[in-house]
Specification:
The protein contains 14 helices and 17 strands. It is of the alpha/beta class. The protein folds into three domains: 148 residues, MoaB/Mog-like domain (Molybdenum Cofactor Biosythetic Enzyme, Chain A); 71 residues, Alpha-Beta Plaits, CATH 3.30.70.60; 153 residues, CinA-like (Maf protein, Alpha-Beta Complex), CATH 3.90.950.20. It has a six-stranded mixed sheet, sandwiched between helices. Strands 14-13-15-16-17 form a five-stranded mixed sheet, with helices on both faces. The longest helix has 23 residues.
Length: 390
C-alpha cells in the first residue's frame, strides 16, 4: 500500500491517489499538521511500501531525516535549479538560508528537477520503504508517478551499500578505525552520529567491487567493532530490540527509576512491541521499589537507592514465568546528587534466565541528556543479553 502524507489535500494529492488506485494498488491519504505527519512517519502502518510526501518538499525532507536518523547533504544541482528557476521566472534570489534548505537532501535520496516548481522532487529507499517527495503541483505529481512511483523507483543505483549501527562510539573514532577501507573500490565512506550514543557507518562500493570484496569488507568491519554493532541496517536501537526478541520468541520487562519510563516509551513506539514487551514499571520512589519489586527497605538502607545492589534486585524482581529478560535503571539524573556521588552516575541491571548482571556508568550532560543516554545504554545491554542467548 502507498500512503500519501500532506498538510492539506489538493489537486496533486487527489491526482496521485487516482493514479495509484488505477494501477491496481491500495492508496490512502493522511492529511494534517506537521505533528500529525511526523507521528505517521514514526509509527508507519503495517503494509505500507511507499510514503509519498506532497507539499513543502524541503520541510518533509528534514522531517524524514530527523525521524529516520538520516544525514542531509547539499545537492549543488538543486541549488543551480533554484537559482535558474528564480531568474527565469523573475523571482528574487532566495536568501542563503532558504537556498540551503531547498538544496538539502537526505542521504540515500536522489533529486529530480522540475520546470514547474522551484522545489525539486526526490526519491529514495529506506530499508523496505520507498520515499517520494513531490511538489504540490498536479503535473509534477503525474510526472513523478509515471517516472518513479509506478515502478517503485527510478533507475537503480548499481552499487552495493553496507551499513552498520555502532553503539558507544563517535563518528571520528569510527572513521579513524576504518581509514584503511578507503580505496578505489569504496566510492564513499561516511559516518554520522544519531545523537543517541551510536553512529551510522555507511560504505558505498563501486559496481566493480563484487560480492567477494563486499564480504571481506563486512567481515573486517565486524572484526573492528564486534558486539558494538547492533544492526547492519539503518535501524533504531529499540527497533532492533523488538526485532531480535521477536525472532527468538522471548519477552522482557523494565523497571525504571531515573529514566522515568523512557525505555518503555521507546519500545512501544515500535510496531509489534506487544509481542515481546510484557510490562514497564516506573518505580521512582524507594517505597515503590520495595512494594512493586519485593525489595526490602532494610536492603535499600544498607546499600543506597542508587547502587549496583539495588539495580540488581530491581531486575531480579521482574523475572518470572512470563518474563524471560529484564532491565532496570537507577541513578542521579541531576542537577544534584547525594554527597560524594557524581551527577550522571547510573546503574543498569539486565536479568536473564542465567542470572542478573549490573553495569556502572557516569553519563554527562543535562538532566534530559543523561536520562536519554541511560535509556539507550539499557536497551543496548538488553539487546546484547538476548543475542548471547540465541
Amino acid at each position: 500500500m502507498k500512503l500519501i502524507l500532506c498538510n492539506s489535500q489538493s489537486a496533486a494529492t487527489e491526482q496521485l491517489r487516482s493514479l495509484v488506485l488505477s494501477s491496481g494498488e491500495e492508496c490512502s491519504i493522511a492529511c494534517g499538521g506537521d505533528e500529525f505527519v511526523d507521528s505517521q512517519i514514526k509509527r508507519l502502518p503495517a503494509g505500507v511500501n511507499s510514503l509519498i510526501f506532497v507539499g513543502d518538499v524541503a520541510k518533509f525532507k528534514r522531517m524524514c531525516a530527523k525521524s529516520f536518523n538520516l544525514a542531509m547533504y547539499h545537492d549543488q544541482s538543486v541549488e543551480n535549479h533554484v537559482l535558474t528557476y528564480a531568474a527565469t521566472n523573475g523571482s528574487n534570489r532566495p536568501a542563503q538560508y532558504a537556498l540551503d534548505m531547498l538544496s538539502a537532501t537526505p542521504e540515500n535520496c536522489k533529486n529530480v528537477t522540475s520546470v514547474r516548481s522551484m522545489q525539486c522532487a526526490a526519491y529514495g529507499k529506506l530499508n523496505d520503504v520507498w520515499l517520494f517527495f513531490v511538489p504540490d503541483d498536479k503535473a509534477d505529481a503525474t510526472a513523478i508517478f509515471d517516472g518513479y512511483v509506478k515502478t517503485n523507483a527510478g533507475p537503480k543505483i548499481d552499487r552495493q551499500v553496507l551499513q552498520y549501527k555502532i553503539f558507544a562510539t563517535t563518528p571520528q573514532e569510527v572513521l579513524d578505525k576504518t581509514a584503511n577501507l578507503a580505496n578505489p573500490k569504496t566510492l564513499e565512506r561516511s559516518c554520522f552520529s544519531t545523537g543517541e550514543l551510536d553512529c551510522l557507518l555507511t560504505l558505498k562500493l563501486s559496481p566493480a567491487a563484487g560480492e567477494k570484496f563486499a564480504a571481506q569488507m563486512d567481515e573486517h568491519v565486524k572484526n573492528l567493532f564486534g558486539n558494538y554493532i547492533y544492526s547492519t541496517k539503518n535501524q533504531r536501537l529499540e527497533a532492533a530490540v523488538v526485532e531480535t526478541f521477536s525472532k527468538v520468541g522471548k519477552r522482557f520487562a523494565s523497571a525504571e527509576s531515573l529514566t522515568g519510563g523512557l525505555i518503555a516509551d521507546k519500545i512501544v513506539s515500535v510496531p509489534g512491541a506487544s509481542a515481546v514487551f510484557h510490562e514497564g514499571l516506573v518505580t521512582y520512589t524507594i517505597s515503590a521499589k520495595c512494594r512493586r519489586l519485593g525489595i526490602s527497605s532494610h536492603f535499600v538502607d544498607r546499600y543506597g537507592v542508587v547502587s549496583s545492589e539495588v539495580a540488581h534486585e530491581m531486575a531480579k524482581g521482574l523475572l518470572g514465568e512470563e518474563i524471560d529478560f529484564s532491565v532496570a535503571t537507577t541513578g542521579y539524573a541531576g542537577p544534584t546528587a547525594d554527597d560524594g556521588y557524581p551527577v550522571g552516575l547510573t546503574y543498569i541491571a539486565v536479568g536473564t534466565p542465567q542470572g542478573v548482571k549490573t553495569f556502572r556508568n557516569v553519563f554527562a550532560g543535562d538532566r534530559d541528556q543523561i536520562r536519554q543516554q541511560a535509556a539507550n545504554s539499557a536497551l543496548f545491554l538488553l539487546l546484547n543479553a538476548v543475542k548471547t542467548k540465541i
